[in-house]
């Protein structure tokens, strides 16, 4: 409500917003407040993960200043609940997601979390776009202060030093075999169960796995139990540490990312920038940022069989120095900054402002 008030000029009578950009369910109602006041200020809602919707009991309506008439299918109601996210999608001028593939996926029932019908309508109106995230300039292995040793696409020596540091930190044995990393929330969405199931195959082929993250208790426990069974080959740290994460990207040969769905994903782009090849499910932003066999590996059907096949291709590449070097170079050379994304947001802003001007 405060965001809507400020956008309307209540904070400064000599200034009002040209546009209000909202992110996810916590700010979704701002678009609705503007609509209920009859204000023509355009609103952009970026959906980072449709699964998190902000659902509350309808008894909250009067406390939040929501008109009773808005509690309907063409409003804030979602299966008898008040949905902040639906309010944002329904009342915003335009919706964006954080990758092009995810923008298409959420118009289908299997990914739409019950909102696919409304999102199909918005897509048909030309009011739904996907703009892949970028990563900031600090992700540069040639000058990252967290790394044990810097390196670049033209000088790989420092990568081995970071790998050795990761092995020591995670209690792994000294090895010249492939090192696989998992830097992730340990939740169902991220396909951690597939990673656990695939880990023994990786170890049996001379690989090692380092895992860091926090999430669902059952997956944390299963990851720790796996490490106990394969001491020296699998290491797990529950929690998150920035230095550990950056060294894992820098030291690993592959990043495992078998997400069931992934609105964008940043880990695969961090890994690519640090010369680690992502092995990922072909979904959402993973499909948009990874070229199979060029700068990473993708698998289609979300199954252990297909995941293991992608890992096998990774191991074969590791056995070919020339191919591994070529793929690392391609991964590190991929443009992943914010310039292209910013230009696309500027286009969305311009279109939304033009539409609002015509409506006014």
Automatic annotation (TrEMBL):
It catalyses: [(1->4)-alpha-D-glucosyl](n) + ADP-alpha-D-glucose = [(1->4)-alpha-D-glucosyl](n+1) + ADP + H(+). Residues 2-120 form the Starch synthase catalytic domain. Keywords: Glycogen biosynthesis, Glycosyltransferase, Transferase. Pfam families: Glyco_transf_5, Glycos_transf_1. Gene3D superfamilies: Glycogen Phosphorylase B. Belongs to the glycosyltransferase 1 family. Bacterial/plant glycogen synthase subfamily. PANTHER family: GLYCOGEN SYNTHASE, GRANULE-BOUND STARCH SYNTHASE 1, CHLOROPLASTIC/AMYLOPLASTIC. Synthesizes alpha-1,4-glucan chains using ADP-glucose. This is starch synthase. It comes from Microvirga aerophila.
């Amino acid at each position: 409500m405060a965001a809507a008030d400020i956008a309307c000029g209540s904070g400064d009578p000599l200034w009002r917003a040209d546009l209000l950009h909202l992110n996810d369910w916590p700010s979704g109602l701002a678009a609705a407040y503007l609509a209920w006041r009859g204000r023509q200020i355009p609103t952009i809602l970026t959906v980072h993960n449709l699964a998190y919707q902000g659902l509350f009991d309808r008894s909250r309506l009067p406390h939040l200043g929501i008109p009773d008439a808005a509690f309907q299918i063409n409003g804030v109601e979602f299966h008898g609940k008040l949905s902040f996210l639906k309010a944002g999608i329904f009342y915003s001028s335009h919706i964006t997601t954080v990758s092009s593939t995810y923008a298409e996926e959420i118009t289908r029932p299997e990914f739409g979390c019950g909102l696919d019908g409304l999102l199909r309508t918005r897509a048909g109106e030309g009011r739904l776009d996907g703009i892949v995230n970028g990563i900031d300039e600090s992700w540069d292995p040639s000058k990252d202060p967290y790394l044990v040793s810097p390196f670049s696409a033209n000088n790989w020596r420092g990568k081995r030093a970071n790998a050795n540091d990761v092995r020591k930190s995670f209690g792994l044995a000294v090895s010249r075999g492939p090192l696989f990393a998992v830097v992730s929330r340990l939740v169902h969405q991220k396909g951690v169960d597939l990673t656990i199931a695939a880990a023994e195959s990786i170890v049996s082929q001379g690989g090692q796995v380092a895992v860091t993250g926090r999430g669902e208790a059952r997956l944390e426990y299963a990851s720790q139990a796996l490490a106990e069974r394969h001491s020296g080959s699998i290491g797990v740290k529950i929690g998150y540490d920035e230095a550990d994460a950056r060294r894992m990207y820098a030291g690993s040969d592959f990043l495992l990312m078998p997400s069931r769905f992934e609105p964008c994903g940043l880990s695969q782009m961090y890994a690519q920038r640090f010369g680690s090849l992502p092995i990922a499910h072909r979904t959402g932003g993973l499909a948009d940022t990874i070229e199979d066999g060029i700068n990473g590996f993708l698998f289609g059907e979300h199954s252990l069989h297909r995941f293991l096949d992608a890992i096998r291709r990774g191991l074969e590449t590791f056995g070919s120095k020339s191919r591994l070097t070529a793929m690392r170079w391609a991964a590190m050379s991929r443009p992943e900054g914010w310039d292209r994304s910013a230009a696309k947001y500027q286009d969305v802003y311009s279109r939304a402002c033009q539409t609002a001007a015509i409506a006014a």
